[in-house]
Protein 1
Amino acid sequence: MKHALWYFAAVIAILITWHISSRSFDIKTRAGNLLGFNDEQQMRLQLRLESDPLQPKCNLSRVCPPNQFAVKITSGAANVVGPKICYEGQNIMSHVRNNVGRGLNIVVVDGETGNLDGYRLLSGNSGAVLAYLSQIDPGMFVFVASYDNVEDKLSKEVREYFVEMGSTMVQSIKYRDSWVFAGRVGTRKKLFETIAVSDEKTNIFEGWPEAVEVGGCYPR
């Protein structure tokens, strides 16, 4: 009788395990929901649990070495398609996640640990942008993607903050230019940056230039 009960319990355990493994769902997201995590906390959890180190992250052409992180930044296209910032295989900000908008879309990563520190859509005036940037600690990585027009967000003081992060193009940004940038606070060392100038003669969208994109593996 005892052996029969053990056998029955083993069969039940196997069936439960099979049932769980056969269901297709995102365990990380469900765990985050059960624990009451918000969207930003769930993304931090996903970054820690990111699997398959043999697959390139963020659709890069190669796998990044352990001492480097994968990042790809894409600006918005005109005022229709939002920007996207991918870090270590996770789309931290994107049109699909519904957390981007017109203005400066910014992701901040801890320069020592590589952990996601936060993200923010800066759609207000330049004063609000300046207040946010001034709170970012030295050594943090900052990833920026523009959407629509950002010229009115870039006062002289705001541009200087980005110069301190390593930007060499922010001083020239004008109305509806597309801009992506990655730098590090307090180092004046640019990781990467590119811009598409808005020009009526060359714009591929009516009133807007093409979207721009940069990405690769960068040292922690």
Note: The radius of gyration is 22 Å.
Protein 2
Amino acid sequence: MTENVDAQASFAFEGNWRSYAPIAFTNLFLTIVTLGVYRFWATARTRRYLWANTRFIDDWLEWTGTGKELFFGFLMVVLLIGLPFLFLQFGAQALLLQGHTALAGILTMVAGFTIFYFTGVARFRALRYRLSRTWWHGIRGGSDDRGFGYGLQYMWRTLVAYLPFGLLIPWSMMTLWNRRMNRMSFGSEPFVAHGRARPLMKRFLLFYLAPILFVLLAVATAGTFGGYLGGVWVTSNFPPILRIIAFLVISVGVYVLLGLIALAYYAAFLREAIDNLTLGGLKFSFEASTDDWLALFFVDVALVVGTLGIGAIFLEYRHWKFFITHMGAAGEIYTDQLMQSQTRTDRHGEGLLDAFDVGAF
């Protein structure tokens, strides 16, 4: 059967915060009572709700992952990677105390590069796991690539990105996205990603050149607050209270402005990446503008601050709804020809993801 897909109607989210609230508060309570252990089952429970309320074309998504998978995945990482890493760290400190500075430095570098490498592996395997546990029309996704080669790609592309003063960061981010997605599939169809870094450069340069603004703000701060600027003491006739207020406003403004510019860059990155992603006869799109991201961000802040942190339990719900609401797919899909994926499925979950606290995307 051939489905002609309209981008506007391809994705829909039917959940609401009222039906999600009992899940969120129960997850919070049980996570506190179990000193954090329940969070793996909380994650699985949340995803089951979010996936079950997400429609793609003519059927609902299904999450088949379990909290047990996530928990044992985390334990495996702690045993296989965490303990050796601690051994390297304590070994380096012991060697340093004994005067073996060079050897201690080598062990420290080995520990650092180990974490660096497995951060890349974690990103790959987290996406692979999530696709393998996402079902639609009785078909799942996945990848036969185990991500170890991607870890090396992540290392050298990230290092190269920072060599020319960080100017190749957009290239690194986009090529890593393409490489990761091009190793994934859903059913018998592979994903094809060919995002470009060039369209991102204007916003990235805005973020990159922001420190110049910081210099100007430093001049303004010195003029109002008083202090050394270029070896010269700058005095001010403003009352002390006004100097303090001006200093705080400028300092906070710098961080807020830089964060907003970074958000604008990420919005452009995600649009470029998803707009150049295909699956068989489907072409995906992402319509969230910078204004949409800013609205999401400020409401998130208001929700968390206004509830003294309790509102954070709704952030995952809000972010998933935002993502699905702005997703689109257009083209044709042959559901009767879409075969089940033959890719390998892991028996454990996102242990590396939890250990290194990184996102799948």
Note: The radius of gyration is 24 Å.
Protein 3
Amino acid sequence: MGGWEVYCAICGGAFSSQVDMDPEGTDEDCYRYDLLQDCNLEWLDEVCGLGVNPDARGNEKAFVTGVGYYWDYGEIQVVSGDDPNVPFYNDRDDIPMTAYASPFFATWTLPNASSYHDFSETGDPHVFPFHPICYHGVLERCIRQENPEHIKRDVLFDVLEDLNGGRYVRLQLSYGEPEPSAEQVWRTTKGQETLVVNPVRIPQLDSDLDVIMKSLEKKGSPHQNSQSEDIFNVLPIELRHEVFRHLSAGSILAVKAASLAMHTTTLPYGLWTHRLRSEMPWLWEIHDIDVFQSQESEGNASKLLLDIQTKSQYTSENDDYILGLANRRRIWGVCEQIRSRYLEKLKAISNTDN
């Protein structure tokens, strides 16, 4: 029968960078080498686990392990890391909890941990496996966007447990398009290269953002349009605000870049944050940039945002999208499903406590 795989609870992807690639790009069961040749796939090799240690001190029992790798048959090999709740195994049972943060113990390897289910039926608790990038880089960011407080891992574990079942190789969620493989071994399919591209470190996106950052460094002067040429100049502030409320984020920037009157008009309170979070919450880099410093920076940012919906959307028709960004947007959709259930449980707990 051979070995079999489990997949990341967050992105649904494999825990191996060893994927089949075809230099000719004609094999339907291989990724195209020309699309992935410059991509670092090593992020796929790393795995962490979210589990619960009933013997942990304190009220919170959940833990996240250090980084390890996928072993086989549903098992992962990880190090303890610096989470004090991680169960530590050795010949002694009197190790103080503070020892988990010790550099010496942090390098010790834990016994194999079962993913999703106790496949060997030994009674050991299971963990939910994920790529560190998917958890720390995407899921945590997604949850904190709606709830900036400390993430309660016990609650998060319960959410994932509710979604656990079926074949015990991934969660019962919609993993978006293209849908990742859930078979005995990872299936490589021509045209689905986006599934294995890093969703956080995206060089092509960095290049686009660099254009915006360089324009911010300049002391740009306003566009020298005459008062009569600027149709927005005759509008009172209230109507300018109403115009902004009916525009997308990219269109807001385009109008500001083209009109000095609109450029100098401050947006209604909270409108920009709301637009970004509702239209492109997964493009967190732009959330942290003040793009309103000059009309040049507004124009550059507008070009990016107006084009980003297409560049971030996977399609089987062509490859005119940024692979890593399309993967991030897909994974963000998975994280939103987890987040909604997490927030519901938090609310239920809060209502019970009150």
Note: Residues 323-353 form the longest helix (31 residues).
Protein 4
Amino acid sequence: LKLLLDFVPNHTGLDHPWVEDHPEYYISGTEPDLARAPQNYTWARRKGGDLLLAHGRDPYFPGWPDTLQLNYGNPATQEAMIGELLKIASQCDAVRCDMAMLILPDVFERTWGLQAEPFWPKATQCVREKTPGFCFMAEVYWDLEWTLQQQGFDYTYDKRLYDRLREGHARPVRDHLRAELNYQNKMARFLENHDEPRAAATFAPGMHEAAAVITFLSPGLRFFHQGQFEGRRKRISPHLVRAPLEPSDDALHRFYDRLLAVLRQPIVREGEWRLLDCAPAWEGNGTWDGVIVWSWQARADQRLLIAVNYAGHQSQCYVRLPFPDLTNRMVRFKDLMGPASYDRDGDELLSRGLFLDVPAWGYHVLEISMMS
């Protein structure tokens, strides 16, 4: 068991000690700024004299009224924040960096009109020199995931996969999973978090399970949220420390129990992942496009085949298996998420492929073994 803490690099609270001791760490404003954008500035009350300071914000929304914006154009601010990271790193194993892209130099300049030196490369390097193996995860949007991976982050939010799953169409999801593995392995994949609506309130029951199989049996870091397994539906504001009582969804809880049992297998953490191509089951049948299939392989005798019909209709397809040693063998497919078991001829699997006929939002997590 390891501990991951939240680190907010872009801003502090209104009552942070730096407001009194180091106001130069913040972005200040003028009376014209306040008149032009009153939602983005506030008077900070100080013993040393009140100052007009900017609220923390991103370039697309008004300021967050309970925050003050740090000035990354000031080298002293960057050094102070590295010092904070070093203190945090001595108390935990990892940090989730809130809205990490906001302090990238181009984003910061677009938001505030100020130039800043890159922060993350030197910050991550400095922390790892003191604490080898320390892990950084970035909350990041706007297609900047790869940028932050190159600047020292071990994992970055995969909001694009989440958005495509919410839209409910298989092809964009499949296209997203075609990315290079050195990118996918660093994605933090989720179906809900404190900023998003609850998965149980967003996805219909069958769709929820299909989306979870895709999300958590794909490569990368699997990121779950408190209450997700029980099917909680009320999103709780981070400003609250309480939540309403909600009944547990027992069927959904049993689904997640089965899914977690699969995730405990080393093959889905250490194995080789491969996205597989589907073909029409017969001419004129376009339902194959709703099916997403991939495999995991650890050793020759450890294989999983996962198939999800991410569509609201029944779908059929053939899928070619990337296992040439099936020749002259009988092959058993045992579903780890249900009671089904299928025996197939290996030569037919290699020549034509495995036939799949999957109901709407249906899925199989098939353990492959040789019978002869």
Note: The mean pLDDT is 95.
